Amino acid sequence: MAACLCRIVLLTGVVLASSGIVDARAVATWSYQKLFDESDIVVIATPTATSDTSEKSPGLDGFGQPVVGVETKFTVSAVLKGDKKTEAFVLHHYRDDGGLVPNGPCLVSFDPEKKRTYLLFLVREDDGRYAPTFGQVDPAVCGISVVERFAR
Fold it and tell me: What is the pTM of this model?
């Protein structure tokens, strides 16, 4: 019995010693209702093309992760909020440029070749492009998500 207890204590010590401290950044997510209320447009859309812009930044909102501006063109399948005549739009977002930073931004990327469909909650920028309602730092966490296609 003592040998068994000794092994359990030893094993527990090894597990505790070998597990490092885990860093995590708290990111508050919004409800669908808050996203909907704060958005200028809510759409179901598919990316058709993506290209880098000339924008470069050493980091978004104080994060040390270098980023590059990106424009992704989308075709709209359905408008849930906003101008129902919208057939296409350009999403302005960022991609990492030089490696990931621990606990850095959760950025989005799109591959038009995969033909995935997304639910997007967006705000209109002054130049006519759209940006994630949740912000540029963590759009992959809240407000932009893949949706399964409906059977035809």
Answer: 0.79
